[in-house]
Amino acid sequence: MNPPESFFRRRSRAQRETPAVSSFVQDASxxxxxxxxxxxxxxxxxxxxxxxxxxxxxxxxxxxxxLPGQARAATTANVRVAxxxxxxxxxxxxxxxxxxxxxxxxxxxxxxxxxxxxxxLDAHRxxxxxKLIADREQTEKMDRGQVSGLxxxxxxxxxxxxxxxxxNKVIVIDAGTPxxxxxxxxxxxxxxxxxxxxxxxxxxxGNETLAQTYAQNWQRHLAHxxxxxxx
Length: 231
Ligand SMILES: [Zn+2]
Hints:
Elements: E1 26-27, E2 42-46, E3 58-62, E4 78-84, H1 89-98, E5 103-108, H2 114-125, E6 129-135, H3 136-141, H4 147-152, E7 157-160, E8 170-173, E9 181-185, H5 191-195, E10 199-205, H6 208-222, E11 226-227
Parallel strand pairs: 5-6, 6-7
Antiparallel strand pairs: 1-2, 2-3, 4-10, 5-8, 7-11, 8-9, 9-10
Helix pairs in contact: 1-2
Bound molecules: zinc ion (ZN).
């Protein structure tokens, strides 16, 4: 077993950015410390959300991924982070879904955000395979949820009641392709998550293995979920 901190290993802090610079700006500097063996990309992370480090709004990180059941391997990924309520996480999700070419797999706990739902329906209508697993209890008790509307719109939906909470909030885009992206974090697909809560999300691209791992986890939950049939 490896220590938890090895999953996201912070190697360095680097240059400051001005507050006007988008939190999604990526610095593609290679990981100099690893002699080229690991070519990790560097990201900027806004820290202003909590005032954790006064006067420092961005930090630069090098990431080393460690995937379940796999030896620690040299990996690369482009990661951008966003925090609500400051950043438009929902808008970034909508944009990512709009650029999906082949498939969008979603795991949702709470889903009320109409624009994210609309982005999924738009993707479905243009021929992208869109599939959703949602928490059963949460879906059934939310009168204004989007899940049933997605099912009515033709998107295959399953309800997962196999856990106290099916609490994943994950969007996997185009797994198995070079443009694969994983979007995950604390952000439920709700307006409260965007406007009322303090949430975090990471958008991870450039790592096909990671996307496949999330897609496989999606499939594991599908195996014990039941289809939502809308009459
Ligand atoms: Zn499950």
